[in-house]
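Re: export button greyed out
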Amino acid sequence: MTMTAQQRRDQAKRDYDAFLAGCPTRELLSTLTDKWAALVIAALSGGPQRHSELAHRIAGVSQKMLTQTLRTLERDGLVTRTVTAAVPVRVDYELTPLGRDLVPVMTAIKTWAEAHMDRVFEARARFDTRD
Amino acid sequence: MTMTAQQRRDQAKRDYDAFLAGCPTRELLSTLTDKWAALVIAALSGGPQRHSELAHRIAGVSQKMLTQTLRTLERDGLVTRTVTAAVPVRVDYELTPLGRDLVPVMTAIKTWAEAHMDRVFEARARFDTRD
DNA sequence: CAGTATCCCAACGGATACTG
DNA sequence: CAGTATCCGTTGGGATACTG
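Workaround output, generated via the alternate export path:
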């Protein structure tokens, strides 16, 4: 008795619930709701990028955090890492189909922040000056 | 010379860029890409909730983190806090229009995690067992 | 260039105890 | 019930130095 991919995802939605403390999705949610992960996925949405290109694109990210974030995303099957033997060595990162599936979701947060920053500033000003 | 709300958001998209280290959206992105923030917004998407209801719904959240998350969301104009004088006191939290605007974005992450947990597990198994 | 390994400080976040 | 305050261990994350 086989199920379609869609049926399996529907089943998963019933089985998994990130509101539950012990649910593995709680930990996956932690990985996805990560500033650097969001920026990396957004940066890779346009196509493969070298390590150095990502470092340049995502201003201010330390080498350590970039590598660490990429490793986690690679382990979770969202990104592939391709090493080209050369001197110096060349490493390209690319989104997997699973990772590309996540692009709209992750870029939506970044876009939302950029689009609504002004309203958040106004709200903060109101909050900070209430009597 | 006035602009429509949409025009202002379009303008903001050009002015703000979370890829830049000094951009205020980088910090807003940090707030939004927060495990507890995502769960709180998802929990409030169905309507107003009391502090204790949220604590119960979001299993495992400490009282400290719940209050802290709610304060940040309130300050950023995403949530309202309503105190009803009584003994004991009653406090209700509710999404603002700005907060409701964010619901689809935030619930999408949670839903994605729940729907694709199995594929992430498979990817991890592959990653962890490669020679 | 890409990555690993330390060192180290600051922030996160849980546990507990105490107020209105 | 809702919230604050304190303590304290854990993690996040930058800086630096060193390899293939």
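The beta strands of chain B are 49-50, 79-84, 90-95. The button fix ships in the next patch.
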